[in-house]
Amino acid sequence: MVRARAADGSVPGARHDPYRLALAIEGGGSRGTYSSGMAVELERRGLTQVFDDVYGSSMGAITGAWLLSGKAQHGASFWWHPDVMPTVIRPRAALRRKPVVDLEFLMNEVYQRWAGLDFDGVLAGPGRLHPIATDADTGEVVDLAEYLTGAESLKLALRGSAGLPLLAGPLIRLGGRRLLDGGLTETIPFHSALRDGCTHVLVLRSRRVDERPLPPPRVENLAVTAFLRRTAPATLGAWRGRTERRRADDERLAAAGGLAQVLVPPGSPEVSRLAVDPALLRRAFDLGAEAMATALDIGV
Questions:
Q1: Name one Pfam family in it (predicted).
Q2: Is-catalytic flag, 181?
């Protein structure tokens, strides 16, 4: 379908086929460099407009915004800019009770002032962005597309979608909701696309082919559980069931049907959610781009 739509030059809202094709982008903090590279390869090949909708969870939502802006490659270059990631991700900030992941700085300083991301332009194009987050008061997945009315609401939606529990500071409020990281309820946001009526979904993963979901380390589990119990008790079930949902997602994606996924190959380096090493992040980005190129050239 990607090849056919590219060949006939159709755009969202004016298709020559009866299908609805979505792009779903997995996040994972700095692991999102992998799926970011895949998205940039789509942009390089002029394939952005073959997708009717773009769904992203956490950092995947941010990658989706850059893709719809038409400047995904430019945006991705800030992953390995020496002044960016060490400023956005600051583990020692926790000692001063400051956010470990400074998403406000990322949106307002890095993306708006330094990189020149046209937030209004993201919303003006024919493709629709669907940032996926978790409703802190219900524990349910929420698609923030309906709340996107302009640049400021988009910034809040992207921050809310990437609002890692305990690490990203105070919860973002948008549309009367308190928001947490979309990965709590929908790490790989193809479910939202299918619920919306998409017939086919191409999923960009931030994990290796040979990587299996594992429970979080005990210390992390205890810390996040305590935070959620105080701040958003309705999300505790989502946190505790996350590993099993990831395993179920892997099984469903492997079964294909109207779903296709792109993963990076075995042996690719391990990238933690809080990685800041420029060389590592650039390597992960390049491997993601290569995986997408291979998928497009020989078939997923």
A1: Patatin
A2: yes
